[in-house]
Amino acid sequence: MAANASTARSASALPLSLPLGLFFVAFVLAPMLLLAWVSLHNDPEMTQAGFGQYAKFLGDGFNLAVLGNTLWLGLEVTVLTIVIGFPLAYLYTQAPGRWQGPLMLLIILPLLTSSVVRTFAWVVILGRQGILNTALLDLGLIAEPIKLLYTPGAVAVALAQIELPLMVLPLITALMNVDANLRQASLALGAGHWRTFWQVTLPLSMPGLLAGSLLVFASSVSAFVTQTLVGGGQQMFMPYYMYQQAIQANNYPFAAAIAMLLLVCVLAVVVAINALGRRSKGFVHG
Amino acid sequence: MAEAFVSGTPRVPSLTPRAAESLRGLIERRSFWAVFGLLGLFAGVLLMAPTVVVLITSFTSGYSLKFPPPGYSSRWYAALWNESPELIDAFVLSLKLAAIATGVSIVLAVAAALALARRREAWARVAESVLLSPLMLPALAIGLSLLMLFNLAGTGLSFWTLVIGHVAITTPYILRTTSASLLQMDGSLLESAHSLGASPLYVFRTVTLPLIARGIAAGAFIGFMYSFDNVAVSLFLSDARSEVLPIRMWHIIESNLDVRAAAVSGVLIAATLVLMVVMERVAGISRHFR
Q1: Is residue B159 in a domain?
Q2: Which of A84, B54, B126, B136 has its CA 20 to 30 A from that of A17?
Q3: Is B65 in contact with A129 (CB distance < 8 Å)?
Q4: d(CA B219, CA B179)
Q5: Are A194 and B28 in contact (CB under 8 A)?
Q6: What mean pLDDT is predicted for residues B259-267?
């Protein structure tokens, strides 16, 4: 009886989802379909339909290098954030309660600070007169300022710092859910800290690790501002290439094809990681 | 050990198997905490360093972004306030845009969350994840696709096309936090309110809303900051007259690296810090990031 009444009530609430549903169809779904449709035209004037833009993109070494660089960047940033993010998340869960509040603010503050500001910070740090060059000069390790900005490594390091909270936060959640008794039992049975980490803690925190990897990968391959400002004009990544083709070259079908390819790559990674996540969840609960 | 006591003769201090084992255990434990401690500390410093560097640089007395600065002054903040109407205009426009987009998003997302969050049917779960999907889509692709839509519709670009783009990217944040707080709500509260004869609107106002207000506030705050900071969507959807602050900053950093960019950053960092501490007290935002 109560269940029936509650079903009836939630059915009456259903129309409330209409405004957002309509907005979504009009301004997210329809544009995405339009994007796919535009990408299926062979010429910028869109007179001839076909797969020409995709053939052009995938048949050209320069374009493939742009795609490869972008995906490689995403992978590099993900690995870097895991290597330094995991210890930070682990220390957070082991820290005394009164430390956890301030530590959490330390992790979240960069996430909320404007990404333009954070990117600008890296421009200041890596510049010719930046803190790194000044320090290296003072230590006598280099004779004159070296070029740090506009190098491939700089983009990966800056992005890893900028995306770090996205890795640390899901890891903290996952680590909090790991039963501390399991770790204690493993240590008491003589497994040692390293072995306990590799064989107990790491496998059990896999859902958090995968969730973090997903967020970091998806945001770093499309991090337009950081890629352009820290990478400079020498390095081309998919987002800027798309922008350039649309706004400067006015070649909308080609820009749309670039957007679709980036989208497909991100979705493929999402699907792959979700599949891994289901397996790892089975591992955690089974 | 026991054996050593029983025999009565103290062993020579060469390592017994047991002592060797405990030494190995010590090294093992120390090395683990040393590696994790150092990497964790490095990550903590790395998180803070850029913010601190920008804050210090913004108080330079020089004309360049040299670090450490040759001297300290607040001249660039004064220049920002007195001689930079274009930056102030961009700041005001960004505030207006983020406020309107967040306001619209709150209405759309809270209504949808009320309809979907507590339903267990598979289609409702699918609908919710579809509505959350813009979180995963590259924002630049959303911007480009909306630009094509407005071109096709012949509406041209204006402040309102910008608002639409920002609503599209901020609603998922509010939908997510609101749904989460609706799920945590005790269903029996709703049941008793209904069975005591309260109208749906009255239940929403007196029971549901107070319980989910913190979740809405947290999502609205995150969405607002995201909209205020967004470049990817604004780049495609703003007309010539409306240049938002992050794009203005992007141009400054890309071209002449004016020190005023550091002063703007200083203002933004301070504002973010204050807002975050307030919102942590009011809405406990940190819970919603995990």
Answers
A1: yes
A2: B136
A3: yes
A4: 10
A5: yes
A6: 89
Polymer length of chain A: 286
Residues B122, B222 within the same domain: yes
Whether residues B153 and B235 share a domain: the answer is yes
Residue B157 sits in the same domain as residue B268? yes
- For residue A284, what are its two tokens? 């955690």
Within-domain flag for B22 = yes
| Residue B120 structure tokens | 């267990």
Place of tokens 């790991």: A178
Domain count, chain B: 2
Does B165 lie in the same domain as B31? no
**Cβ-based neighbours of A243, under 8 Å, separated by 6 or more:** A224, A255, B140, B144, B235, B236
- Partnered with residue B60 across adjacent β-strands are B72
- Residue A186's pLDDT band (cuts 50, 70, 90): confident
Regarding an ipTM greater than 0.90, the answer is no
Residue B61: per-residue pLDDT? 85
The pLDDT of residue B10 is above 60: no
CATH label of the domain that carries residue B196? 1.10.3720.10
Amino acid at A267: L
Provide the domain limits for residue B19.
15-46
Q: Chain B 28-67, CB below 8 Å of chain A: which residues?
A: 28-29, 31-33, 35-40, 42-44, 46-51, 53-54, 57, 64-67
Tell if the CB–CB gap between A121 and B53 is shorter than 8 Å: yes
Contact B164/A at CB under 8 A: yes
* CB nearest to B152's CB, from A34, A87, A121: A34
Q: Nearest CB to B148: which of A34, A130, A222?
A: A34
Q: B145 vs A259: CB contact, 8 Å cut-off?
A: yes
CA distance to partner chain B, nearest, from residue A263 (Å): 7
What is the spatial distance between Cα B52 and Cα A118, in angstroms, rounded to a whole number? 11
Residue B51 is assigned to a structural domain of this protein: no
Q: Do A224 and B286 touch (CB under 8 A)?
A: no
In a 3-state reduction of DSSP, which class is residue A41? strand
**In this structure, are B238 and B180 located in the same domain?**
yes
Q: Does B115 share its domain with B175?
A: yes
Q: Three-state SS across A177-215?
A: HCCHHHHHHHHHCCCHHHHHHHHHHHHHCHHHHHHHHHH
Q: CB of A5 within 8 A of CB of B111?
A: no
Q: Do B146 and A31 touch (CB under 8 A)?
A: yes
Mean pLDDT of B214-236: 92
pLDDT category of residue A6 using cuts at 50, 70 and 90: low
8 A C-beta contact, residue B265 and residue B79: no
Q: Which domains does chain A have, with CATH numbers?
A: 63-285 (1.10.3720.10)
DSSP B290: -
Are B169 and B116 within one domain?
A: yes
| B129 in a structural domain | yes
Task: Decide: B84 and B260 in contact? Cβ < 8 Å.
Answer: yes
Asked if residues A39 and A253 have their Cβ atoms less than 8 Å apart, the reply is yes
Are residues A205 and A284 in contact, defined by beta-carbon separation less than 8 angstroms? Answer: no
Are residues B104 and B21 part of one domain?
Answer: no
